[in-house]
From TrEMBL, chains A, B:
<protein>
    <recommendedName>
        <fullName>Gamma-glutamyl phosphate reductase</fullName>
        <ecNumber>1.2.1.41</ecNumber>
    </recommendedName>
</protein>
<feature type="domain" description="Aldehyde dehydrogenase">
    <location>
        <begin position="13"/>
        <end position="276"/>
    </location>
</feature>
<dbReference type="GO" id="GO:0050661">
    <property type="term" value="F:NADP binding"/>
</dbReference>
<dbReference type="GO" id="GO:0005737">
    <property type="term" value="C:cytoplasm"/>
</dbReference>
<keyword id="KW-0028">Amino-acid biosynthesis</keyword>
<keyword id="KW-0641">Proline biosynthesis</keyword>
<dbReference type="InterPro" id="IPR000965">
    <property type="entry name" value="GPR_dom"/>
</dbReference>
<comment type="pathway">
    <text>Amino-acid biosynthesis; L-proline biosynthesis; L-glutamate 5-semialdehyde from L-glutamate: step 2/2.</text>
</comment>
<dbReference type="GO" id="GO:0004350">
    <property type="term" value="F:glutamate-5-semialdehyde dehydrogenase activity"/>
</dbReference>
<keyword id="KW-0963">Cytoplasm</keyword>
<comment type="function">
    <text>Catalyzes the NADPH-dependent reduction of L-glutamate 5-phosphate into L-glutamate 5-semialdehyde and phosphate. The product spontaneously undergoes cyclization to form 1-pyrroline-5-carboxylate.</text>
</comment>
<dbReference type="InterPro" id="IPR015590">
    <property type="entry name" value="Aldehyde_DH_dom"/>
</dbReference>
<comment type="similarity">
    <text>Belongs to the gamma-glutamyl phosphate reductase family.</text>
</comment>
<dbReference type="Pfam" id="PF00171">
    <property type="entry name" value="Aldedh"/>
</dbReference>
<keyword id="KW-0521">NADP</keyword>
<dbReference type="InterPro" id="IPR016163">
    <property type="entry name" value="Ald_DH_C"/>
</dbReference>
<dbReference type="InterPro" id="IPR016162">
    <property type="entry name" value="Ald_DH_N"/>
</dbReference>
Length: 419, 419
């Protein structure tokens, strides 16, 4: 039984099975992978009763263990949520297939024809917390891109995840897609996470999905490359030239539409030459946002002081730090010092100023005259995202199917030898 | 003085300086970066006397320390080698600039215009051994792609590297390119390498250039992402359908043209249905190659036995392991087990067989009817390479300027907020 193996041996065994399945998956046609996902979606719908029963057990245990209402809400499934999960899988089945895409091709002077072709990465580990839908979402993205997945969900969702995994892989199998392509770590032993993080060469990439604590642990411990973002300390700079109505609308939306998403604005930078900074601050307050200001802000309006740590804090709440800065250069300096490299925006009518901001702010996503809440794979037209990455290698910003591929060089010759 | 700092503090200070310079570099125009490299090439030429004098000192110390003739040859510089180094830098200045290239662009239904644009990675660490020319080659590739470089060469080349670095950065400065963009770790303390490998967040990527011992240490210790290959255990499979003349020419070239390069063939797999296996083996022997065979090979010809370790050995020498395999499936199974994921080739007239090989062999480079010795950025038309990568993320195969970039998402709106 798996549970009697040591975690490293268990993960090695799973990863080897996943690697074999990935090889088979990579040789399936696009239509075969699509059919597998449609069948998985159908199987999830057909298993709604079992999935909800499993979720009832998880919820009962969670309540007994005193999970917070927020955690219980993330854990909770109902008919609509299961249907949405199945719909999500079916939607992934409709996305453009990156596998086999030709990135570029060239004929060398010696006649060798070189082509760079996208291929799956191989084996992707997904480590997540209480949301059971990640089991289906992440598995669907991996299978569509020809990768095998090793799923390790949170212990609080163990029954729900097991039921989802069972239905999903049964669907794959029914459509002739190897069910071993989606592996689930059944044990709730935290050492299994450590074994995944250490599985260099066996797991090609780890995607953590969850809170900052999880991401920080994964980033600190992993020997396997990690695709993630730790923080979304996102700024909006309102330049002197900004249209005041637009600026207010964008700032309020960026902060208050949903405060708990990684694309939410956390710090508002207002140009000292902006005509009406008070209107921005009062609009945030009117929307229910607590404002913490630097000294110059507090000279304008009585708000709580922002201390040094505020500029490096992702509130994920109805709280906003506000600083007045000297023009674009002041904003660039603040952002260079405090941005987490996720999403930063400028509101300005002056296009030359905006272009400098877009060029010089070194973040995964830079926006002009738009809300930071657009930082999302779906909004970017990628269909669905496996996550948002703030690292500088491989993939950056919202990562979807393309980010789950690598490439190989294929050379076709007619007997060429090197001189 | 730098040498009195602890290695981590020294590297942190250098990396911070490099980061600032990278920001300036990224804002220079293509032509300004090209001009900087042309000036660096000129400065190297003008400093030939000093560089050679420094090299004489390194060579004398190397001889006194009993370095091997092969190492001394790598260390040695003369007029031609300095001229070639300068020419190499000038050539990099002519390559297509990846910075600012638009990868793709799309207008979203809400009017937001999204563009993915290539940008430099930031700060690249180069850790290398006795070849002093790497100082100039790697620095040129980094500067052309808008990155700052931190160079850490081998202790045996310390004087040569210092002279090259002095000339190179003086050239940059003369052309208005910040010389801080190319930092050199002056100390020969090996702890400096450890500090570079641990400098997560401060150094964005490490490229080791040197022997397997160096690469293995870097891969084992690094917390910073590493772009490298450890081994080039490259196979050629000669299929039953191969043209015998072509097969012999390719096999001999792949093994014997240069035996010490990472693209050299190490294992020859011959289809049991290939009509004349002896001709292939005898051609290798005639070219001076020692052949080690599996049992089936030794039933045909008296050669040394290949033991289990041979299939996992990169000889980098005039030695070749030979196995007879059962058709394409036999070859695929052998390669899946023993390939290092670098370069593998098939010789076949049967295109369907070749296509299966190209699709199913999971290596960075797969070739049909061509010598594995083409595994090289120059031969691939990339101009010059920083290295060859066998990892699966970011860049794979020969890595040149494009592999030294990442991208950012730029969104241009007209006041869009998310619903």
């Amino acid at each position: 039984m798996l549970d009697t193996q040591t975690p490293p041996l268990m993960i090695a065994t799973m990863a080897a099975e996943a690697r074999r399945a990935a090889g088979q998956l990579a040789r399936l046609s696009t239509e075969q992978r699509r059919a597998g996902l449609r069948a998985a979606a159908d199987a999830l719908r057909a298993a709604t009763t079992e999935i909800l029963a499993a979720n009832v057990a998880d919820m009962a245990r969670g309540q007994a263990n005193g999970l917070s209402p927020a955690l219980l809400d993330r854990l909770h499934l109902d008919d609509q949520r299961v249907a949405a999960m199945a719909d999500g899988v079916a939607t992934v089945a409709t996305l453009a297939d990156p596998v086999g895409q030709v990135i570029d091709t060239a004929t060398r002077p010696n006649g060798l024809v070189l082509t760079r072709v996208r291929v799956p990465i191989g084996v992707i580990g997904i480590i997540y917390e209480s949301r059971p839908n990640v089991s289906a979402d992440a598995a669907a993205l991996c299978v569509m891109s020809g990768n095998a997945a090793i799923l390790r969900g949170g212990s609080e969702a163990v029954e729900s995840n097991a039921a989802i995994h069972r239905a999903f892989t049964a669907g794959l199998a029914a459509a002739g897609v190897p069910p071993q392509a989606v592996q689930r770590v059944a044990t709730t032993d935290r050492a299994a996470v450590g074994a995944m993080l250490a599985a260099e060469g066996a797991i090609d990439m780890i995607v953590p999905r969850g809170g900052k604590g999880l991401v920080a642990r994964v980033q600190a411990e992993a020997r396997v490359p990690v695709l993630a973002h730790l923080d979304g300390i996102n700024h909006i700079f309102v330049h002197a030239s900004a249209d005041p109505t637009m600026a207010t609308r964008i700032v309020v939306n960026a902060k208050m539409r949903r405060t708990g998403v990684c694309g939410a604005m956390e710090t508002l930078l207002i140009d000292t030459a902006y005509p009406d900074p008070l209107a921005l601050i009062e609009a945030l307050q009117a929307a229910g946002c607590a404002v913490r200001g630097d000294e110059r802000t507090r000279a304008l309006i009585s708000v709580a002081p922002a201390d040094d740590s505020d500029w490096d804090t992702e509130y994920l709440d109805a709280i906003c730090s506000v600083a007045l800065v000297e023009g674009l250069d002041g904003a660039l300096a603040h952002i260079a010092r405090h941005s987490s490299g996720h999403t930063d925006a400028i509101v300005a009518a002056d296009e030359a100023i905006a272009d400098r901001f877009l060029a010089e702010v070194d973040s995964a996503i830079v926006l002009w005259n738009a809300s930071t809440q657009f930082a999302d794979g779906g909004e970017f037209g990628l269909g669905a995202e496996i996550g948002i990455a703030t690292g500088r290698l491989h993939a950056r910003g919202p990562v979807a199917l393309e980010g789950l591929t690598t490439y190989k060089w294929i050379g076709r010759g007619t007997g060429q030898v090197r001189g």
